[in-house]
């Protein structure tokens, strides 16, 4: 193959990026654009899908130019994306007809409460692997159609198209209306066993299948780009956390990774069978590479981790830049008895309590902004610990170690705290932008740029490993404080 690179588009919650990777899986160039976070009401979060598309085009053009490449140098384009966010657009004009409703949005709480009252929070878990929660896409789409009946009518007759952000970008690039199995598995409309839209779930949410995309594997040629990089195959798509699983080369049952971003997401590869969670986790498709069987995963989704650091910066002003939290927190040996539980929009896994709201507990006159900074890092580590405990309950695959990635892993102190809290080694790879890397891998595999997963395993290299250094009594006392603080977040709404 004469092409030298694979391009990955990473459309995230706060920004869009494009990264260019070479044959060895090494990043060559990157470009990034932030987009607006729109908050029309408390609990509502929206994005402008047209703005996102413009930013993606600019990022692709800038990154490819920075790599000194042309379309002829690019073998394939892969896409990874914020997952449960839903977009609805006009099939004829290609313009969005409603703001994208973001995964963090809680406006669908009444829809969810009504469905749960009729059969419990887990009434559909056997079909789709998910609990009833405002997090997932189906209720967001139902809300749009309830509020705007004309849009519902147009969807039924095929005038409107809907989908998660991967679907929006693939359609803009190729004109094809498809999604991959990982993103489809987060809508609450896909059957985990058949990997197709589930008739009962479609009927329950009253979603017209005519508006939904075709479900395809995560790695295959969906079409040829007609925008930036015209003529290059668009051949990979993965939800962001699934992309990180692939980027971390977690191809064996028992492999686990945690991505630390706006929220944090821990995925455990469970092999070719879905494990139904009894402990508050999500059962999801991990990835599907071409015609191979789908690999499944257990996931713990944590809504607020990096967003807590942003809150310290933007709302409290105790730091000027997010990177300062590490230095500030390191000036004190512990949090001074202070515990922060950042349930800004409820608690996700393993609690699934939309009625929860954040608390700062254990405040005394001794506590300084340095203690708050350290408590914020500890909040991330303890939320991840709750997820690993739930995974131990659900699967007979104990974690021997954890591979980590994402922006927050620049904090060495966080990763030491994480190792201490989990009591297992925590490893950061050389390439921490594993979300982009996973999308690139999926796209490259589909066109033969890489030979298979064995080759991809050879690309993974550890940069540093943190060993646990906390004694058991200290860990147990801290865990008890954490659980007491979590209990105080409940029943606020």
Number of strands: 21
Q: Work out the helix count.
A: 16
Helix content bin: 25-40%
Average pLDDT score:
94
Termini separation = 58 Å
Structural class by helix and strand composition: alpha/beta
Strand order of the largest sheet: 15-16-14-13-19-20-21
Estimate the strand proportion: 15-25%
Low-confidence stretches: none
Characterize the largest beta sheet: strand count, sense, and whether it forms a barrel: 7 strands, mixed
Radius of gyration: 21 Å
Cα shape: globular
Outline the structure in words.
- This protein is an alpha/beta fold and 493 residues long.
- It has helices spanning 49-66, 109-117, 125-128, 137-147, 149-156, 165-174, 181-184, 199-205, 240-247, 306-316, 324-329, 369-394, 412-422, 434-446, 453-459, 472-487, and strands at 5-11, 15-21, 27-34, 46-47, 74-81, 86-90, 100-101, 160-164, 178-180, 214-216, 219-224, 233-239, 256-260, 264-271, 282-287, 295-302, 339-341, 359-361, 402-405, 426-429, 462-466.
- The model has no long low-confidence stretch (mean pLDDT 94).
Describe the SSE topology.
Elements: E1 5-11, E2 15-21, E3 27-34, E4 46-47, H1 49-66, E5 74-81, E6 86-90, E7 100-101, H2 109-117, H3 125-128, H4 137-147, H5 149-156, E8 160-164, H6 165-174, E9 178-180, H7 181-184, H8 199-205, E10 214-216, E11 219-224, E12 233-239, H9 240-247, E13 256-260, E14 264-271, E15 282-287, E16 295-302, H10 306-316, H11 324-329, E17 339-341, E18 359-361, H12 369-394, E19 402-405, H13 412-422, E20 426-429, H14 434-446, H15 453-459, E21 462-466, H16 472-487
Parallel strand pairs: 1-5, 5-12, 9-10, 13-19, 19-20
Antiparallel strand pairs: 1-2, 2-3, 4-7, 6-8, 11-12, 13-14, 14-16, 15-16, 17-18, 20-21
Helix pairs in contact: 4-5, 9-14, 10-12, 12-13
């Amino acid at each position: 193959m004469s092409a030298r690179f694979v391009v990955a588009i990473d459309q995230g919650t706060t920004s869009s990026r494009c990264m260019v990777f070479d044959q060895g899986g090494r990043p060559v160039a990157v470009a990034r654009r932030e987009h607006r976070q729109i908050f029309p009401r408390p609990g509502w979060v929206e994005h402008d899908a047209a703005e996102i598309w413009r930013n993606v085009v600019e990022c692709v053009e800038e990154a490819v130019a920075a790599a000194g490449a042309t379309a002829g140098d690019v073998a394939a384009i892969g896409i990874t994306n914020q997952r449960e966010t839903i977009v609805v657009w006009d099939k004829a004009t290609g313009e969005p007809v409603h703001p994208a409703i973001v995964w963090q949005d809680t406006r669908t709480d009444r829809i969810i409460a009504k469905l749960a009252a009729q059969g419990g929070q887990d009434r559909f878990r056997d079909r789709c692997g998910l609990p009833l929660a405002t997090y997932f896409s189906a209720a967001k789409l139902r809300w749009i159609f309830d509020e705007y009946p004309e849009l519902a009518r147009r969807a039924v007759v095929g005038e409107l198209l809907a989908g998660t952000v991967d679907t929006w970008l693939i359609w803009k690039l190729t004109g094809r209306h498809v999604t991959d199995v990982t993103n489809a598995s987060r809508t609450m409309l896909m059957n985990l066993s058949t990997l197709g839209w589930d008739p009962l779930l479609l009927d329950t949410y009253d979603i017209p299948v005519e508006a939904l995309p075709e479900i395809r594997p995560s790695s295959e040629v969906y079409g040829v780009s007609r925008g930036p990089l015209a003529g290059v195959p668009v051949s990979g798509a993965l939800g962001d956390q699934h992309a990180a699983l692939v980027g971390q080369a977690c191809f064996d049952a028992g492999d686990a990774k945690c991505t630390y971003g706006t929220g944090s997401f821990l995925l455990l590869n469970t092999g070719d069978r879905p494990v139904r969670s009894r402990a508050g986790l999500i059962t999801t498709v991990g990835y599907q590479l071409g015609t191979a069987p789908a690999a499944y995963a257990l996931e713990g989704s944590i809504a607020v981790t990096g967003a807590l650091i942003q809150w310290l910066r933007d709302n409290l002003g105790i730091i000027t830049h997010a990177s300062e939290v590490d230095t500030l927190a390191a000036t004190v040996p512990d949090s001074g008895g202070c515990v922060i539980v950042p349930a800004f929009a409820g608690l996700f896994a393993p609690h699934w309590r939309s009625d929860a709201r954040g608390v700062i507990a254990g405040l005394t006159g001794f506590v300084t902004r340095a203690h708050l900074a350290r408590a914020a890092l500890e909040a991330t580590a303890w939320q991840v610990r709750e997820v690993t405990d739930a995974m131990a309950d659900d699967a007979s695959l104990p974690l021997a170690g954890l591979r980590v990635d994402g922006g927050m892993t620049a904090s060495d102190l966080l990763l030491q705290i994480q190792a201490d809290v989990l009591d297992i080694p925590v490893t950061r790879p050389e390439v921490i932008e594993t979300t982009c890397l996973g999308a690139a891998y999926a796209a490259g595999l589909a066109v033969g740029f890489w030979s298979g997963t064995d080759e991809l395993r050879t690309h993974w290299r550890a940069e540093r490993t943190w060993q646990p250094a906390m004694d058991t009594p200290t860990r147990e006392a801290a865990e008890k404080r954490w659980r007491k603080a979590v209990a105080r977040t409940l029943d606020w709404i």
